[in-house]
Amino acid sequence: MSHIFVNIAFGIVTCLVFGFFTKNVLKTWFTMQKIGKGKEENRLTHLGERLQKVATEGFLQKRMYKDMSAGIMHLMIFWGFLIVSLGTLETLMSGIIPGFNFAKILGEGTLVYKAFLLSQDWANMMVVIAIAWAISRRLFFPPARFATLAKASRIDAYIVLSLIFGLVFTALITMGAHSLAFSLPEADVYAPQLFFSRLIASGFGALFGIATPEAWQIFSDSVWWLHVTILFSFTTFLPYSKHQHLIWVWPNILLKSQHSTGRLRPMEFAEDAESFGVGKVTDFTWKQLLDGMTCVECGRCSAVCPATNTGKKLNPRNIVHHLKDAMLDAVKHPEEEQRKPLHGGIVSQEELWACTTCGACMEACPLHIEHIPAIVDMRRYLTMTQGEMPSELQTTLQNLESQSNPWGFNNSTRADWAKGLNVKTMEEAKGEVDYLFWVGCAGSFDERYKNVSRSIAKIMNEAKLNFAILGSEEKCNGDSARRAGNEYLADMQIKENIETFQKYKVKKVVTGCPHCFNTIKNEYPDFGFKAEKVIHHSELIDELFSEGKLAAKTSTAEPVKTTYHDSCYLGRHNKVYEEPRETLQKIPSVQLTEMPRNKENGFCCGAGGARMWMEEKEGTRINQNRAEEALKTGAKTIATACPFCMTMMRDGVASFQKDKEVQVKDIAEVVAESL
Ligand code: SF4
Ligand code: SF4
Description:
Largest sheet: 5 strands, parallel
Bound molecules: iron/sulfur cluster
Distance between the termini: 85 Å
Structural class: mainly alpha
Mean pLDDT: 94
Number of strands: 9
Helix content: 55-70%
Number of domains: 4
């Protein structure tokens, strides 16, 4: 590398390659900003928390360890690659400035320079091992989630893995051969730091019969050129590859929603609007398009999706891919509105309606992609603009509109479950209570779940809490209408409820349903009501036990084996995992056992996202899948904390003809029986 013209030419090529890379990245970024004009919330608040997420989720890759071997492998590649980048910088500089190396800056023979060489030797070797591991895994024992990968996506992965392998392997050979080219004692000073490089280079030396310092230097220079050729190819290819997640993961984590995954973004209804929700690519927000560009198609979301796992058309990986397809289509054809329609062209109605909004995909995605908001935004278009939805859902929405409950019961009978119990209404109590007990539609009208409401009331009375219910002043909380895409109806319901809350100056709310809990806690603040405290009854019961206000009676009978099914809206969306379990463990008649899929890895019952009101026509039933898992534990009681879960688990158990032996009970019932 001594000829000045070669150095100048190399400098020009380097600038062109990295200029091309930067141009492509910026073009994608500005396209997202330009196309994704849909209204978006401010994503730059809570900067400290955001940076913390970048550290834990970006640099430490916390979510990757759910699959430990893949997590370690990915971490080795990521950190190795970061360290190796310093060596890459030295390589490029040495191509432009004759004789350049970091020894000139750090000092020949110094400890710092030795540390640099050692880091390069180890990091390159670490990446070689990890990439060899990744390629062998794909070839010989691929995880199930790779089975449905498109051919282009598989080829892309092999190209990128091979390029990275080539990059680090040639770096090792170049370093080792260069070191071996010098028989001088000062060069051998670095032998311990370049252990792997010299070992691998020596292997090639033996193969090719390299013996003289000149031959070593020629070999080192030749591999150096191969190394930079691979580097330039990788840099040029990256913006066209699905592995451009290396670039987009950083803004995607930094700009991720700071809200609970259970919260949906509210809509504004412009008077002259002709369309609502997402009907075409320009209706997505730039963040949603960024999600699409960030996806690496790893399939972790699909592997845990209850719809995908039970044979539905919905596959969350494909949903995210649709966003990317829609955007790339719009980029290629800017003059046309959108050649391939989003609905019916890129995404089907069956996919959109199959989602239970369980959040398993969002919890699993290592790149923090937000699937649910995109799905619900597209549902909003179907429901509010097109008026297209499953017919069963249409009936539910009509009932919600006329009677403020999904079954269409006369809303004036809402408090009938409480007859004969010591339960006041807010009107009777004049709002002077500590807690509003928000009963919910199921707790008020579902014959089975009324017993749960009675149990909660019994527990609150036992603990001498001052509480009241709204009775016929309570209206559906808005969860089902929102998730069915009818934001207009949900908006009305929520605002009516908030007016009632404000009338009674409600400060603390305890709910008998995780869906009510999630909506009042995470969504009502967007509409102007933020209570001092909103808790689910499982949290309240746990609190009452801890404060000594409740005590379970001792039991001499054999404890009943009980398994707890996590509700997605209580667990995954609101992180209430321990309280129900701690409560159950305090009951002497209960012996708690876990299902394999529990807590954040729990499996949905199939009823969230307004799926409760739709028929499950495709594939196998989600509730049967979950009930089977519960039955396999040998539990005689399946404890739930949600009316939808209770219905689904009861139906699931009955489908296996086990309903005589196995009972499904809410934890409030288990506790009330033990008092
Ligand atoms: S959305 Fe996330 S989890 Fe799903 S395939 Fe893409 S990167 Fe993987
Ligand atoms: S929210 Fe649940 S059902 Fe919907 S796509 Fe994600 S994993 Fe599947």
